[in-house]
Every structure is written in structure tokens, then in C-alpha cells.
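Researcher: Structure prediction, please.
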Amino acid sequence: MKAPSFIAVGLALLLHLTTFAQSTSPIAGSVKKVTGDAVVRRGTDTIPVKEGLHILPHDILETPPGGSLGIILQDGTRVAMGGNTRLEIDTYLYDPGLGHLGLLLRMVRGVMVYVSGKMSQLSPGSTKVETPVGVVGLRGTEFAISLEGH
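Model: Predicted structure follows.
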């Protein structure tokens, strides 16, 4: 009788851990370099940016005037932000084994340089940058964008 109850407890624990893992946000990437007092807005929290900080989907990254921020996403995509920039990681899906690929960045203001990673190679068209004046559909490679007055 002890074996079946042990198995039931083990299965219940496994189910709980699986549910917990599914409810946590996957890490989109991490901060590689920061200058100035950049912050991440995560829900209602404002987090000072430090090198190594994990970036999650829905994080809003902000740099002060004169500051900069460099991040690398899980697929190797690199994003560099100049001073007075606001960028949201709206969507980040990178699970090539299941075919889940997608990146949507929302840039409100500032300067950004983008260098594509594996996602753009595996699924051209799955990466986009939205701005107040239009949407950039990325098919790989790299680009720079500057938005003033927003």
C-alpha cells in the first residue's frame, strides 16, 4: 500500500511543478552592458538595470539621456539602445523544436541598433519592430532606427 501512495504523491508533486513551470515567464534574454541609470519596468515594479539582469517578455526597457543598454536574446539577437530610449519586449517566443518563434519589439522613442539572431534565420518574417510611425518587418540582417519627438 505504501508504494501506490508514494507514486500518487510523486505524481501530484510533478503535476504541481509542471504547472508552476508553465506559469512562470520564460527568459527572453539578458543585459550585457549598461551605462547610466537605465531601468526595466516589469508590471508595477521599476528595476535598476545591472549587467546580467534577465529580460522577460513584456519588460519595458528605458535608458536615461546619455545612457545606453545592450541586451542579447536567447536566440542570439542583439539589441543596443542609445540614450533616452524606451523599448518594450512585447513578445518573445523561441522554441524551435515546437516551431514557436516570434519577436515583437515596440519602440516609443530613442535610438536602437538591431542585429538578428537565429530566429530570423529559422523563420523570416517572425520578427517585427513597431514604432509610432510604422512597423518594420525584419527578414534577418541588421538595422538602426532613430525616433525623435515621441
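Model: The chain has two helices and twelve strands.
Researcher: Thanks, that helps.
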